[in-house]
């Protein structure tokens, strides 16, 4: 690709983004709202959907949330529009989460020292939930240090 073709391609992409931002802004004005301030920046990240798909998602969002949109600024709930677009992109392009993302690390079990109630037994070192079980089992046995009548 020559430099001129690269510049032309970038100009075409920027023109399409500006056109989409204008269409979305018109939809906000139609709803009685001012367009969101960060609309042009957000449109840069919505490359996975066509303009018609994005407009359909926005229309569905406005229909579902019409009670929130009466008048004023479109910035207040713009995060909900971004979330709806993100979900539409993920639905269109599902990814295998087992390969692409790391699984949440398991909590490491800590070794704990359990002080038992029995006088003759030494303290025990156990891991995790077993500490509670050992403490219960040892507290059920009578201690040799307890006075008996």
Q: Give the biggest beta sheet.
A: 2 strands, parallel
Number of helices, where a helix is a run of at least 4 consecutive DSSP H or I residues = 6
Widest beta sheet: strand line-up: 1-2
Q: What global shape is seen?
A: elongated
Tell me the span between the first and last alpha carbons: 98 Å
The computed structural class is: mainly alpha
Total tally of structural domains: 2
Element-level helix/strand string: HEHHEHHEEH
In angstroms, what is the radius of gyration?
31 Å
The helicity comes to 40-55%
How much β-strand is present in the residues? Answer: 5-15%
- Strand elements, count: 4
Mean pLDDT comes to 76
What's the oligomerization state? single chain
Which ranges are low-confidence, i.e. pLDDT below 50, for 5 or more consecutive residues?
none
Tell me briefly what this model is.
With about 150 residues, the protein is mainly α. It contains 6 helices and 4 strands; from the N terminus they run αβααβααββα.
Structural write-up:
With 149 residues, this protein is mainly alpha-helical. Helices cover 52% and strands 8% of the residues. The chain has helices at 3-30, 39-43, 51-64, 78-92, 97-100, 130-140; strands at 33-34, 72-73, 111-114, 124-127. The strands form 2 sheets. The chain has a two-stranded parallel ribbon. It has a two-stranded antiparallel sheet with strand order 3-4. Helix 1 packs parallel to helix 3 (51-64). The protein is elongated and about 80 Å long.
């Amino acid at each position: 690709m020559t430099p001129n073709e690269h510049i032309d391609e970038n100009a075409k992409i920027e023109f399409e983004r500006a056109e989409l931002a204008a269409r979305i802004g018109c939809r906000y004005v139609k709803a009685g709202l001012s367009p969101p301030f960060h609309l042009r920046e957000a449109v840069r990240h919505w490359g996975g959907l066509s303009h018609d798909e994005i407009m359909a998602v926005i229309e569905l969002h406005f229909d579902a949330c019409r009670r929130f949109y009466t008048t004023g600024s479109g910035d207040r709930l713009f995060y909900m529009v971004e979330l709806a677009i993100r979900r539409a992109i993920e639905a269109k392009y599902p990814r295998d989460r087992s390969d692409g993302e790391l699984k949440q690390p398991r909590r490491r079990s800590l070794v704990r020292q359990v002080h038992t109630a029995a006088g003759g037994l030494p303290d025990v070192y156990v891991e995790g939930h077993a500490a509670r079980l050992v403490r219960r089992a040892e507290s059920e046995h009578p201690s040799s240090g307890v006075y008996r009548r």
